[in-house]
Amino acid sequence: MFCPTCKSIMYPSDNELCCKRCGFKKSKGKAQITSKEIERNEIVVTESIEGTLPKTKIICEKCGHNEASWVIRQTRAADEPSTRIYQCTNKKCKNKWREY
Questions:
Q1: Exposure string (b/e) for 34-58, b if CB count within 10 Å is 16 or more?
Q2: Which terminus in the chain has less CB density within 10 A, N or C?
Q3: pTM of the model as a whole
């Protein structure tokens, strides 16, 4: 939270927020989120992410299918190019391969 007076960062102190620059004080009030509220608002994804990845036209070397989903990962040093990881969208194949 920022101080409305001087726009500096406010720091917690007991049950209030204090600005160390200008001395402005504000009670914490109901702005604080309890751990129970956080737990209640968490969403757990238990289903697969299949179907949410982007797809491209590329031929799978294993089954010959012409479509695959892809992601880009930095698998090596930062000064090296990214690695493209493909997965065949054919339900029977699901072959994965990399392109450097």
A1: eeeeeeeeeeeeeeeeeeeeeeeeb
A2: C
A3: 0.49
Structural domain for 17, as ranges: 10-40
Name the token pair of 19. Answer: 């600005």
Are 94 and 61 within one domain?
yes
Q: Three-state SS for 83? A: strand
The DSSP H or E segment spanning 40 is: helix 35-41
Rg (CA), the chain: 25
Provide the domain count of the chain: 2
- What is the set of active-site residues? 79-80
| Tens of pLDDT, residues 71-85 | 998 888 888 889 999
> CA 62: distance to chain centroid?
32
